[in-house]
Amino acid sequence: MNQQTAHLLESRIPAQQSARRASSPPGRTTEARPALRVLVVENEARAADSLVMGLRRHGYQAESVDTGAKALRAHTEADLLLLDLDLPDLDGLEVCRGIRSASDTPIIAITARDTELDRVLGLQAGSDDYMVKPYGFRELLARIEAVMRRVRPRPPVAHVITSGPLSIDARTRQVRIDGGPVEVTRKEFDLLYLLASQPETVISRKQLMTQVWDDSWSRPGRTIDTHVSSLRSKLGSSSWIITVRGVGFRFGHA
């Protein structure tokens, strides 16, 4: 890391450490998590504005800066960086190394450099992913989701979930009611287990499509409703899965 990069980072490290302590209060739940803060580092104004507007339309808190120096000062306020490696003031790889030396903030490098060596250098500099221009916006959103899944720890979930007469075993992928087996499909099991593992949480249709069907793009349509209806029938009661109109579903009881 060169002296200019180190100097720009020096004044930001204490603030970042304070922010880390403040960002993880005891007992914080997933429902309380604010929108993901994305910092776009892009020196082309039109490209930056378009990217920021697109991210905001999809629920992200997005801001942009146009130089490496500004990125080194502002990165502590972001949950994820989209870093263009072709910057007017500092080498993008150096900026990436500087940020990585001071924080674990996820970085997706974005550049027109498309050789294998460029990709290797970008990843070795500390980026978590690497995209070559031009790219599709939907692919970018998918990569953001994938990076955040890797860096955000998941809370431990019980292997066997029991609620009254209902038992769901994640290891054997078996469902039982009063000790008797209930035959469910793979997706039905995944849907039921996801709801049962978060019994006090209303899970949106979009989240169900993403986590059960690995599809964050398609409209849910009748897919979820068909599986919910089948599960209710097999479990012998509609009260096991509660519909929250306009939102999604939550786990119920017998």
Which structural category fits the helices and strands?
Answer: alpha/beta
Q: Please outline the major beta sheet.
A: 5 strands, parallel
Total of helices = 10
Q: Would you report the number of β strands?
A: 12
- In N-to-C order, the SSE pattern is HHEHEHEHEHEHEEEEHEHHEE
Helicity level: 40-55%
If strands are numbered along the chain, what order do they take across the biggest sheet?
2-1-3-4-5
pLDDT averaged residue by residue? 84
| Approximate strand percentage | 15-25%
What spatial form do the alpha-carbon principal axes imply? elongated
Cα distance, first to last residue? 61 Å
How many whole angstroms does the radius of gyration measure?
Answer: 22 Å
Q: Which ranges are low-confidence, i.e. pLDDT below 50, for 5 or more consecutive residues?
A: 13-33
In short:
With 254 residues, the protein is an alpha/beta fold.
